[in-house]
Amino acid sequence: MTHATGTASVITGAAARVVDAVKVYGSGDTEVRALDGVGVAFPAGRFTAIMGPSGSGKSTLMHCAAGLDTLTSGAAFIGDTELGALGDKRLTMLRRDRIGFVFQAFNLLPTLTVAENITLPLDLAGRRGDPAWTDSLIDVVGLRDRLHHRPAELSGGQQQRVAVARAFAGRPDVVFADEPTGNLDSRSGAEVLGLLADTVRELGRTVVMVTHDPVAAAYADEVVFLADGRLVDRMEAPTADRVLDRMQRFVGEGPRSPRTARSLNDTAERKNPS
Ligand SMILES: Nc1ncnc2c1ncn2[C@@H]1O[C@H](COP(=O)(O)OP(=O)(O)OP(=O)(O)O)[C@@H](O)[C@H]1O
After folding, report:
1. Residues of the chain with confidence (pLDDT) below 70
2. What is the pLDDT of residues 192-201, one digit of tens each?
3. Residue with the nearest Cα to atom 12 of ligand 1?
4. 232 domain-assigned
5. What is the ipTM of this complex?
6. In a domain, 203, yes or no
7. Is the CB of 100 under 6 A from ligand 1?
C-alpha cells in the first residue's frame, strides 16, 4: 500500500517538535528513561506515524509533544510556542485551541447528537468556529445523514469518524491520534485511517499518529521509529511491507514484548491469509 504524499510543496515548518526530549519515570531502582534524548519534528501539512516496539516510548513522546505530560528535560514546541514555558492555564488553552486529539476510546458524549459532539470543543471555548469548515469536515467523514443521531445509534467506526471530525473542528495546528483504530475491525479501521489521510492531503491539516500496526502506519507520509526511548529510524512514503520489515529488524536488535510479537504476527497473517 503506497500513499503518495504530494504535500512537499505545502510544508511550511514544524507543527510540533521536541528537542533533546528526556522523560524519566520513577527514581532509583525503579527509574525508567521512557525518552532518552529524542529530537523529532512533525512537519505541518503532513501525516506522521510513530512506531516502535511496546515500551519504546511512543505514547510518552506523543503525550509530551501534545502537552498532556511534561518532559524531565529538553523542550516541546507547538509551532513556535514552547510548552514548558506556559503555566497550567495557558497550557490548557493551547491544548484546547491549537491541538486536536483522537484516542482509541471514542470519548463521545452519549447525550449529545453527532453534530453537537463535533462542535463541542468550539462550544466549550465559546467559539463559533467556521461553519463552512465544519460543513466540509462532515462531508469528508461522511456523516451528513447521521448528524442528529446519538453515539449509541452509530457503529464503532462511525463513532470514531465523529471523534475525528471533532478533533479537526477548531482547525487545530496538529491532531494527535493514539492508536485510533485499536477498537475497530479492519474495514472500519481502514476507513478512519483513510479519512485521517484525506484530511491531511485534501484539507492541508497535520496529523501525528501513534500505532503498533504497520498497515495503519502505511497511511502516513512518513514513519518515525522509536526503540528504547530513542529515535532510531525514519521512513518516507511507507508501505506496510517495508514497515513490517523494519519492525521485524527490531527482533534482532533487542528483547521483544508479547504485544509487539503479536502485532507482527497479526500483520503477517493479514498479508498472507492461510
Ligand atoms: N506513568 C508511568 N510510570 C512509570 N513508567 C511509565 C509510565 N508510563 C510509561 N512508563 C514506562 O515508560 C516506557 C515507555 O512507555 P510508553 O507507554 O511510552 O511506550 P509505548 O511505546 O507507547 O508502549 P506500548 O506500545 O506498549 O503502548 C515503558 O517502559 C513504560 O513502562
Report:
1. 1-12, 252-274
2. 999 899 999 9
3. 34
4. yes
5. 0.98
6. yes
7. no
Contacts of 230 (CB under 8 A, 6+ apart): 36, 37, 38
d(CA 121, CA 56): 31
Which is nearest to 84 in space by CA: 96, 99, 74?
74
Show the cell assigned to 129: 468556529
Ligand 1 atom closest to 23 (CA): 12
Q: Using one digit for the tens of pLDDT, what is the confidence trace for 237-253?
A: 999 999 999 999 887 66
Residues spanned by the domain of 256: 13-271
DSSP letters, 63-84, are HHHTTSS--SEEEEEETTEEGG
Could you tell me if residue 5 is inside a domain? no
Is 125 inside any structural domain?
yes
The pLDDT score that the predictor gives to residue 258 is: 47
pTM of the model: 0.88
Whichever domain contains 92, its CATH number is 3.40.50.300
Using CA positions, which residue lies closest to atom 31 of ligand 1? 55
Query: What local confidence, expressed as pLDDT, does residue 140 receive?
Result: 84
Count up the domains in the chain and report the number: 1
Compute the distance between CA of residue 165 and CA of residue 128 in angstroms, rounded to an integer. Answer: 15
Label residue 161 exposed, middle or buried (CB < 10 Å: 0-12, 13-18, 19+): buried
Non-local (6+) Cβ contacts of 215 within 8 A are 1, 186, 240, 267, 270
